[in-house]
Design a protein that fits this description.
Mean pLDDT of chain A: 91
Radius of gyration of chain B: 15 Å
Largest sheet of chain A: none
Shape of chain A: globular
Number of strands of chain A: 1
CATH superfamily of chain B: TusA-like domain
Largest interface: A-B, 69 and 59 residues
Shape of chain B: globular
Distance between the termini of chain B: 53 Å
Largest sheet of chain B: 5 strands, mixed
Structural class of chain B: alpha+beta
Oligomer: heterodimer
Helix content of chain B: 25-40%
Strand order of the largest sheet of chain B: 1-2-3-5-4
Order of helices and strands of chain B: HEEHEHEE
Number of strands of chain B: 5
Strand content of chain A: under 5%
CATH topology of chain B: Translation Initiation Factor IF3
Strand content of chain B: 35-45%
Order of helices and strands of chain A: EHHHHHHHHHHHHHHHHHHHH
Low-confidence stretches of chain B: 1-13
Radius of gyration of chain A: 23 Å
Helix content of chain A: 55-70%
Structural class of chain A: mainly alpha
Distance between the termini of chain A: 30 Å
Low-confidence stretches of chain A: 1-5
Mean pLDDT of chain B: 76
CATH architecture of chain B: 2-Layer Sandwich
Number of helices of chain B: 3
Number of helices of chain A: 20
Amino acid sequence: MSKELEGIVVNNSTDSELAWFARKGNLYALTILALISIGSAMALGVDTRWIYLLVYLWFGFAYGVLLQYGRFCMASAVRDLFAVGVPRMAVGVLIAVALFSLSAAVVKVIGVSTYFPSPIGWHGLIGGAVFGFGMVFAGGCASGSLYKCGEGNIGSMLVILSISFSQVFYVTQGGWLNKLVPAAWTASALSKHMPASLSVTDGWFDQFMAGYIWDLKSTTMAKILGFDGVTSGAFIGDALFCAILPSLLILILLYVLYYRKGYLRRRKVGKPTVTEHLHGIWSMLTASRNTAIAGLGLGIFAGLHMWVIGELRNHYGIFNFGELLAKMGHTAGLSIQNTVFDPGYWYITTQEAQWGGWVLHKLGMHDMNNIFYGLENGLPNPLFNAPGWMSIGIILGAASMALMRREFKWKIPSLETAVFAVGGGALMGLGARIGLGCNIGAFFAAVTNGDPSGWVFLAGMVVGAYLAVKVFSRWLDWRASRENFGI
Amino acid sequence: MMWLFGKKIKPRSAVESCAGRIVDVCELGPIQVHVAIDCRGAVCPRPQLLTMKALERMPDGEVLELLIDNPSSIEAIPAMTLTLGSTHLITVKETDYWSIYLRKGIDDTGD
């Protein structure tokens, strides 16, 4: 925090006098780190090819550490703007976007980028809005809820469970949901001549994918602007025009709308000069030191993650982890293309849909005759689910960090919070399936890789979060009037 | 399910008016607290919204005490003060929660 914003922070907790090694939290954090290290060593002892899965786990761990360190809540990036007019988190996210776009450009120039642009269409706006609405009620986005699990927040665990299981319903259900499918989608899905085992005309999501999404075009900013060279395309077309310039524009907008007035009043500046405004923007960027540092770190690690996975794919001569699993003899749960979900970068919601899907599959409640599991993502045992381990890594990384900073505490939600968590999680799951990802997969990873569809998702998310904040605020007022605790 | 809803649950995030309560905060000395909000157990955005609603109704110079155990709110509340025309006095880390003290109005003598 910059000096001018910062009040004094005092540590009054009972164990603050103890030596580093005598503090319980530090010992627990070390134990977590030791267990992951031993587990990793054992996995490599069995087969060195598990390195592919462990890379996901350790990058997840790093994301978790950074998210907790910066109390980095993407949900509050849009929510707090509307709720309380605070740009802190939006600033942190934009720092991460700028940095990730640069590290992603480097990876693209090296030639090992794992990113494929998403189709652009109405689904991004609608999915983003549903996701954004759910996110405010759930108290965190998909990755936010994961790192809050690591802080001992049981409400966030309910959110994760709800995201996991609700998505299974959305991607497998046919029946009455079939009636909601436009006839054009059904016809278009039929014309794709998919294997009969997928039964693409049965199931809302199958027809949405094969009959609508597959007909849309995807592109990158470099292609739109005609930057043909690899380097100029990656750095100028994609990073500069799709991530850095839009971020700068939004930063200036945030300063003008939310920060300028308070800043100038505090500095007692009557007629501000351009220099004064630049100082103001800098003050806004550095207002929360932890958040800014986390943004920088996340941007760099997200790029490194793509690079390491890209190099590993080259090394093993594969396009997808499913091929490696098949070589290792684990063919259960692979899709009919021998693939599993393996984005090669930071992603959250699909692996969670696989956790829920795997459990319900084992219970015999659905089979893989759909596009989501059967054709694209597979349904591997959670032990072999590489991105799934990334999610677990986020929880463990955040737990380690929270324990070391003595911020870990089991928090049992009230009934109201629990209902909001489950409902919000189910809406986030729905939004993520319609929008083809969450705020990480469909926004953060997209815009930083030159894919303009990410900004469409963000626009939807902003609208959804804005509406949800209004509803939430009304709800608090109503509760306050009922409980008679006027201020 | 009726038993669940019918049960008397201690209201979370209860706002209490406590004019005249004096708390002795190390570093700052005694502070007179006018409004206290216990947000322990609440997650975002509740602490932020309750803080905003409380500060909006308080006259300049009054002090708000917030008890919070949600780490991301600890970062968010001081960041709000600039927008809300108030001053962050101090954040005290207790063993398993934080107390944050905010004064309504921009403090000219502070920092």
